[in-house]
């Protein structure tokens, strides 16, 4: 291959590791990502994994990007192809001029390599077999060794990797030494035998700043700890399981009574999501802050309970880490396809509060906020994450907590209030905001008790089958939903550098790709104002943005344009005004995809108007 | 059923319990069930049990599912919070409530459709977790509100009011509860108030998962000849293994009974169960023998009632979880929120 074609870029490329799951590659791959970060260069790391435990292909993608774009870019510049099963596919996924690193222990015929790439063979298996006897060690150290090869060809700072290995195996001196040795074996071999450096290079920069590297599920769990949740009821389901795991770990650290050693929390692994939602509702009815992490199939099972919580007005926090649906769908791939399911969950007329964090920092903030909102509004709040946010480490702002913040426990009548003679009607709208007062069970010997039910009742919680009180109650619930509009986080609006007739709406994990796409489009002469929706019901600013633009693109990661449907229904917008941009193959949406789709539509529109003029 | 509001006045000499409450303080709204419904007798037994144990009404949370049985919490303990939840899902709501506040008494009220059909899963898991509760099944073998379909506890061969014969095997909730590890298992009959009241009292005093399966005839749809859950049938086939008294707070007096026929069992809260054995062979401490005994008598079409099993070891969810003595819903923000300093530490570790 002529050298002129080889990709030549500093701090701006995509490395993809192709492995077999269960081979212990994940920690080596993460080591690479962290080493780049420590060199001051932002990375976006994504794990692409199968629904199995051992033996199927898995990939880890690291986008090295000094400019700070954290969305998936699409395409690969360098692949570390360690999995023979996917060797051909991995090679095919390389950009022209890309680089292939593979284990050359077993010879591969020259004809099997693409001609427009640089092939870098390293006999990793042979080196391992020579150096180690234990088969497990051979496998594990091979992983560290290819990181050594990468460090050599990308001219990385070895000190950072040595430090990271030391940190990872702190207290286990033997392991530190062995891993450092394996790393240098790989690196030294590469320096001697490969044409180092290649066209790609990681160079020390100062673009990471004080940011932290955390996955959205951990951040969500931490938000629940800070938000005062004491009850977690969950059923194992990818990609939400690590929320419960992280909650458990953080609680073990922060929620043990120092005097007695007893727990200030309860975690129940339930028999299903019917039970997890039921427990959350029971606990919240009884005055504890409770949550259930789950994914789409769990939300399907929770439908009946969500309707009860809506109608009986019980706070409940549910985290939906969305994955590819419908049915079992793509359980280890990402989508934003539960929007309508969540917004209108359950039979009858229902609407629920949804929050859409863009990444871990907001996942933390919104997770804690969801408990305040649920208590204030006495209704379910669904935190809509997705696999891309939940299960991948993302570079984000450090987590913040205001120590002066006081939990908003909402309208709760106490024994003192009742003794003071306050009129208690469980479904009585005293303040005109649609939100009634509640009492916790056990509050007062003779006052304030009421019967909670999913059947109709009057303002004093007395059973009735009369149409009047039913309508009165349903309309009050609508009023409460109106109140919610001013309590939920408003949209984030970013205006183009010049006034634009066009707008784009997006939410959740699409955020980093959209930011980058906007830059690409603007560089191409397309200016768009953008609005990141952060909650449902839609804040009044959402209506204003829709009114202010002639045409609006709605970018989402599902087939049916679910957010668009919600906007049309709830904001009364002419559907023709909203153009869907949809990505739903299970991979995270990319800036290239968004920019190409929008540019094509804008191009068509321009042509049409030219024709109209002609 | 009656549509009249219940009058609030009562006889001035109505007896009071040690807390100064009368029986009327434990009553609820007037029942809307059919006249003669077994469930109303259970309601009366709950009122009596709570009165006799001098329980502060507001310290009870009564939680139910859906169905005739699940309507009854409206008819007792009017000063308690109640929660008529979702069909078959009382156990999860109750479990959550119990997690939030370990200090209340949880009374779960369910029926055979609610617990043995749609809610069998939650029935099983709440018992195996050892949730500290009284789980009462008002068991009539039919769906009342939908007009008389068989439920999963209907006996094989039992005839419906329309003459249809049930061909499915029945689920015996007590046998199931024994297998699942419930620590207090009893069966009673709504027509035997004395037995029922004491079994409910024992269940309330018990710390752990207590199941009381109460055969409670449905006068509208399952009280005919050919039904195995009619008043007449249950009376004729009832085999009570013991009679129970519950004594709280003092050493029980034992002189009234013949020696050898009486057994005293102390529960973990200090209360005593005084068992008068009607079947000298039967032991309330042997789970396996209890299951055998149930199966043996079921084969003879007999309905075994009484206290069937009480565990000698304490097994209760909060103890298993090692949660704080302070109820979780009473912890302060200071106790719950680690604060910014700790978050800074976390941030520093994630750089």
From TrEMBL, chain A:
GO terms for molecular function: oxidoreductase activity, acting on the aldehyde or oxo group of donors. The keyword Secreted does not apply. Signal peptide: none annotated. Residues 22-187 form the Pyruvate/ketoisovalerate oxidoreductase catalytic domain. Keywords: Oxidoreductase. SUPFAM superfamilies: Pyruvate-ferredoxin oxidoreductase, PFOR, domain III, Thiamin diphosphate-binding fold (THDP-binding), TK C-terminal domain-like. It comes from the Bacteria. The keyword Oxidoreductase applies. GO terms for biological process: response to oxidative stress. Residues 224-390 form the Pyruvate flavodoxin/ferredoxin oxidoreductase pyrimidine binding domain. This is Ferredoxin oxidoreductase. It comes from Ancylobacter dichloromethanicus.
UniProtKB/TrEMBL annotation, chain B:
Residues 66-214 form the Thiamine pyrophosphate enzyme TPP-binding domain. One of its GO terms (molecular function) is thiamine pyrophosphate binding. The keyword Oxidoreductase applies. Keywords: Oxidoreductase. SUPFAM superfamilies: Thiamin diphosphate-binding fold (THDP-binding). One of its GO terms (biological process) is small molecule metabolic process. Gene3D superfamilies: 3.40.50.970. Pfam families: TPP_enzyme_C. InterPro entries: 2-oxoacid:Fd_oxidoreductase, THDP-binding, TPP_enzyme_TPP-bd. The keyword Oxidoreductase applies. This is 2-oxoglutarate ferredoxin oxidoreductase subunit beta. The lineage of its organism: Bacteria, Pseudomonadati, Pseudomonadota, Alphaproteobacteria, Hyphomicrobiales.
């Amino acid at each position: 291959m002529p050298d002129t074609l080889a990709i030549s870029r500093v701090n701006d490329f995509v490395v993809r590791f192709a492995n077999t799951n269960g081979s212990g590659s994940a920690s080596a791959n993460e080591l690479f990502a962290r080493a780049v970060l420590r060199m001051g260069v932002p990375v976006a790391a994504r794990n692409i994994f199968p629904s199995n435990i051992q033996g199927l292909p898995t990939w880890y993608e690291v986008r090295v990007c000094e400019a700070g774009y954290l969305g998936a870019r699409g395409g690969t510049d360098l692949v570390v192809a360690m999995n023979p099963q996917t060797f051909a596919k991995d090679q095919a996924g390389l950009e022209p001029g890309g680089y292939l690193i593979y284990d050359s222990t077993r010879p591969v015929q020259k004809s099997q390599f693409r001609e427009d790439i640089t092939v870098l063979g390293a006999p990793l298996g042979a080196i391992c077999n020579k150096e180690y006897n234990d088969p497990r060690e051979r496998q594990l150290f091979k992983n560290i060794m290819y990181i050594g090869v990468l460090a050599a060809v990308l001219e990385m700072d070895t000190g950072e990797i040595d430090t990271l290995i030391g940190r990872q195996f702190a207290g286990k001196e033997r392991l530190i030494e062995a891993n450092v040795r394996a790393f240098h074996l790989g690196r030294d071999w590469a320096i001697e035998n490969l044409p180092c450096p290649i066209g790609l290079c990681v160079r020390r920069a100062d673009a990471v700043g004080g940011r932290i590297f955390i996955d959205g599920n951990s951040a969500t769990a931490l938000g629940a700890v800070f938000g005062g949740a004491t009850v977690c009821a969950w059923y194992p389901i990818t990609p939400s399981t690590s929320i419960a795991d992280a909650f458990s770990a953080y609680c073990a650290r922060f929620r043990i009574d120092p005097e007695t050693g007893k727990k200030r929390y309860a975690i129940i692994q339930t028999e299903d999501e019917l039970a997890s939602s039921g427990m959350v509702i029971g606990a919240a009815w009884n005055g504890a802050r409770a949550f259930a992490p789950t994914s789409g199939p769990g939300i399907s099972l929770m439908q009946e309970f969500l309707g009860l919580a809506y109608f009986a007005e019980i706070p409940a926090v549910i985290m939906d880490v969305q994955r590819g649906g419908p049915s079992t769908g793509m359980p280890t791939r990402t989508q934003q396809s539960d929007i309508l399911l969540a917004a209108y969950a359950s039979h009858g007329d229902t609407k629920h509060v949804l929050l859409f964090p863009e990444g871990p920092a907001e996942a933390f903030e919104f997770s804690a906020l969801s408990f305040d909102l649920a208590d204030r509004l006495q209704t379910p709040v669904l935190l809509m994450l997705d696999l891309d946010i939940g299960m991948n480490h993302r570079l984000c702002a450090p987590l913040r907590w205001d120590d002066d913040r006081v939990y908003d426990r909402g309208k709760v009548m106490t024994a003192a209030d009742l003794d003071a003679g306050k009129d208690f009607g469980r479904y009585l709208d005293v303040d005109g905001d649609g939100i009634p007062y509640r009492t916790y069970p056990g509050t007062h010997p003779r006052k304030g008790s009421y019967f909670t039910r999913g059947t109709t009742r009057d303002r004093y919680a007395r059973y009735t089958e009369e149409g009047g009180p039913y309508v009165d109650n349903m309309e009050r619930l609508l009023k409460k939903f109106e109140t919610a509009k001013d309590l939920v986080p408003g949209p984030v609006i970013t205006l183009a550098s010049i006034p634009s007739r066009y707008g784009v709406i997006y939410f959740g994990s699409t955020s980093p790709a959209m930011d980058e796409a906007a830059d690409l489009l603007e560089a191409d002469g397309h200016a768009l104002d953008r609005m990141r929706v952060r909650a449902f019901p839609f804040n009044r600013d959402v209506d204003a943005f829709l009114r202010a633009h002639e045409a609006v693109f709605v970018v989402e990661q599902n087939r049916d344009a679910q957010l668009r449907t919600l906007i049309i229904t709830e904001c009364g917008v002419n559907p023709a005004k909203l153009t869907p941009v949809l990505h739903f193959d299970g991979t995270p949406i990319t800036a290239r995809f968004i920019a190409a789709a929008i540019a094509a539509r804008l191009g068509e529109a321009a042509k049409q108007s030219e024709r109209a003029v002609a | 059923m009656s549509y009249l509001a219940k009058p609030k006045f009562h006889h001035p000499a109505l007896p009071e319990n040690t807390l100064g409450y009368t029986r009327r303080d434990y009553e609820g709204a007037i029942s809307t069930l059919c006249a003669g419904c077994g469930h109303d007798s259970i309601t009366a037994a709950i009122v009596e049990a709570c009165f006799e144990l001098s329980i502060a009404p507001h310290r009870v949370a009564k939680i139910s599912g859906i169905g005739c049985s699940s309507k009854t919490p409206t008819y007792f303990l009017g000063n308690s919070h109640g929660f008529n939840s979702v069909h078959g899902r009382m156990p999860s709501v109750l479990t959550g409530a119990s997690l939030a506040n370990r200090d209340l008494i949880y009374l779960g009220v369910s029926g055979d459709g609610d617990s043995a059909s749609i809610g069998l899963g939650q029935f099983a898991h709440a018992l195996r977790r050892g949730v500290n509760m009284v789980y009462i099944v008002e068991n009539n073998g039919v769906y009342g509100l939908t007009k008389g379909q068989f439920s999963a506890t209907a006996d094989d061969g039992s005839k419906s009011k329309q003459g249809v014969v049930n061909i499915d095997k029945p689920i015996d909730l007590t046998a199931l509860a024994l297998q699942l590890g419930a620590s207090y298992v009893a069966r009673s009959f709504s027509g035997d108030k004395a037995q029922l009241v004491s079994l409910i009292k024992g269940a309330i005093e018990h710390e752990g998962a207590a199941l009381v399966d109460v055969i409670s005839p449905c006068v509208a749809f399952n009280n005919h000849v050919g039904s195995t859950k009619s008043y007449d049938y249950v009376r004729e086939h009832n085999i009570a293994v013991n009679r129970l008294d519950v004594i709280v707070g003092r050493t029980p007096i034992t002189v009234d009974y013949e020696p050898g026929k009486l057994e005293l069992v102390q529960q973990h809260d200090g209360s005593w169960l005084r068992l008068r054995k009607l079947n000298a062979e039967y032991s309330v401490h042997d789970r396996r023998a209890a299951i055998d005994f149930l199966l043996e008598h079921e084969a003879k079409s007999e309905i075994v009632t009484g206290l069937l099993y009480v565990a000698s070891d304490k097994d209760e969810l909060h103890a298993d979880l090692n949660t704080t003595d302070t109820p979780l819903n009473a912890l302060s923000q200071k106790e719950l929120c680690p604060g910014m300093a700790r978050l800074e530490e976390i941030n520093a570790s994630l750089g």
